[in-house]
């Protein structure tokens, strides 16, 4: 817990002391290799279970309600696509391949590409189960920019990155469209970011207890307007990186607040319990649906065999 919950002071002090930093929110080269899906929890390596896995093949595509026709859902999915790398920018590996089947009719529609299960913001004993390129960044102050390497196939589709903070607040960041061919780094810039500390409104922040300012990946969004051709849409995403101020300064204090009160630990355990309960419910519902579909398929097969016998 000490690794995660260090002493917090004002964001403007952190910014002036450390400046900007680039953090990898998610790297699909990492999540595309099952051997990488381990997190350090004390002295043990905890393999992320199948239910919680962020392995590329386990991501799902959710269409908006008006686009959620059977054919569209059946033909909208992700895959672990092999990439040869990008001219030395990164080495060969797997990236997230996305296929969306938008409605052919002329109406606005979108697709959300999400992990199979919602990521725990503070997963694991140290809260770092999904950090280091697996979907979560801790110690995030003000965000200056978000970047994402995308392999386009000349579709006039808009791309958004949806992030959730430690309070559960969801925010969507427009990255631009994917109307190009090959690899390109798309970028969102915060027009309200003030690089000079003298231009900022300075406030004193309560130091304890306060949850670590963090963000996690909620989904990738691809938006198609009614004027754009429907049907199949193909795109590949390599990563998402966040350029941000640090919100935490690590320094020695006379009194160990957390050791005295354990307020942050209690809140962290409460949130983990809620997130785990949500994941269990989703898992049970999906298991029930898979068993129901299996029973339906078996019944259809038996009926088909009976018809052939007649």
UniProtKB/TrEMBL annotation:
Biased amino acid composition, Low complexity: 297-310
Signal peptide range: 1-19
Biased composition range(s): Basic and acidic residues: 285-294
A Pfam family the protein falls into: FlaA
Residues in coiled coil: none
Swiss-Prot/TrEMBL keywords: Bacterial flagellum, Cell projection, Cilium, Flagellum, Periplasm, Signal
Region (Disordered): 285-310
Predominant cellular place of this UniProt entry's protein: periplasm
Subcellular location as annotated: Periplasmic flagellum
Protein name: Flagellar filament protein FlaA
């Amino acid at each position: 817990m000490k690794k995660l919950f260090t002493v917090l002071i004002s964001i403007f002090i952190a910014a002036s002391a450390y400046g900007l930093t680039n953090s990898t929110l998610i790297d699909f080269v990492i999540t595309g290799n099952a051997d990488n899906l381990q997190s350090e929890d004390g002295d043990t390596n905890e393999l992320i279970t199948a239910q919680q896995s962020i392995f590329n093949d386990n991501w799902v595509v959710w269409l908006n309600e008006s686009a959620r026709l059977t054919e569209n859902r059946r033909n909208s999915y992700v895959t672990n696509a092999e990439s040869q790398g990008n001219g030395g920018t990164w080495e060969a590996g797997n990236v997230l391949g996305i296929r969306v089947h938008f409605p052919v009719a002329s109406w606005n529609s979108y697709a959300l590409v999400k992990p199979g299960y919602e990521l725990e913001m503070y997963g694991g004993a140290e809260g770092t189960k999904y950090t280091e390129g697996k979907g979560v960044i801790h110690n995030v102050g003000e965000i200056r920019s978000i970047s994402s390497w995308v392999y386009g196939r000349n579709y006039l589709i808009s791309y958004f990155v949806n992030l959730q903070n430690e309070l559960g607040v969801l925010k969507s960041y427009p990255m631009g469209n994917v109307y190009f061919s090959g690899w390109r780094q798309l970028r969102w810039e915060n027009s309200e970011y003030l690089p000079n500390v003298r231009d900022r409104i300075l406030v004193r922040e309560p130091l304890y207890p306060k949850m670590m300012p963090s963000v996690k990946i909620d989904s990738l969004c691809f938006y198609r307007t009614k004027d754009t051709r429907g049907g199949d849409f193909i795109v590949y995403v390599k990563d998402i990186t966040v350029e941000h101020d640090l919100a935490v300064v690590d320094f020695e204090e006379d009194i160990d607040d957390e050791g005295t009160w354990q307020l942050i630990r209690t809140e962290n355990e409460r949130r983990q319990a809620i997130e785990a309960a949500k994941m269990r419910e989703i898992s049970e519902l999906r298991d029930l649906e898979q068993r129901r579909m299996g029973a339906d398929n078996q019944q259809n097969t038996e009926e088909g065999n009976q018809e052939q016998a007649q």
